[in-house]
Amino acid sequence: MENYTGIKTTMPHASDAARRRALADFVRTRREKLDPAAHGFTDLRRRRTPGLRREEMAQVAGLSATWYSWIEQAREMALSASAVSRLAQALGLSPAERAYLFDLAGREDPHPPAPDAFPPHGALARLVAGMPEPAYVLDGTWTAQVWNAAAADLFRGWLDGAAERNLLRFLFLDPAAVALIPDHAERTRRVLAEFRADTSRHLAEPALAGLVAGLMADSPLFARLWHAQGVLGREGGLRTFCAADGVIRSFEQVTLAALPGGRTKLVMLAPAVADGGLEPVAAPFFGPSESA
């Protein structure tokens, strides 16, 4: 397994100079807000500017004075993810400020702040409840926390009654999922690959580690697909379900980040429209073929 480098490769090269300037300005303004006495610097005489001096900031952050000066001078340099992390801690940044610092530095945070725990904002729950079409909210383990009446009606065995709320446990362990999803084999493969991509940096967390271990023990299909190492970005698109009345109903799925800085997802299903038409797509369901 390759070592994690913390290098973010998606930053456009054309913006490097502007990014370095923004990084320099951001770090300088935060340094000037720090209290020298709170960091053990008691000689407050002859200070021409507020906050810590550059050499003091470098000392607190565990960086060389030269390197820190280069940061504020917007020089071209290669900061490691660990150095950015130390700088963020020394500056006392909030989670949002820390994320901004890493973005400006062109690095991925190896230890991002933990997402806010549920329950979600009341406004989000009310928004979902008021939607006419199926909608639900997943937490970082892909367990449903909020859903509306339309979702409970569609997702029988998952969002109705006292069912298992974790999406993966429903898909891999509940026979109701096979009846609900006509293309169950393909959908489980894709969903698990999306789950791996979404949670890869957090799989050591107890909740996720326990979920994966339990599914490995309880579902041979999950174990086989997990060992296959499939990885896919979470995509929207057409989703088909066998409704309670035996009719195949098609929806366009849209997934959005529900809460800033967290891993909570709002999933919405809009009725699909036939090519050139205005009506939702629906078709009778006659069950799987003998050769399936």
TrEMBL record:
PANTHER family: BLL4672 PROTEIN, BLL4672 PROTEIN-RELATED
GO molecular function: DNA binding
Protein name: Putative transcriptional regulator
HTH cro/C1-type domain location: 26-98
Highest taxon listed in the record's lineage: Bacteria
A UniProt-annotated Pfam family: HTH_31
SUPFAM superfamilies: lambda repressor-like DNA-binding domains
Source organism of this protein record: Azorhizobium caulinodans (strain ATCC 43989 / DSM 5975 / JCM 20966 / LMG 6465 / NBRC 14845 / NCIMB 13405 / ORS 571)
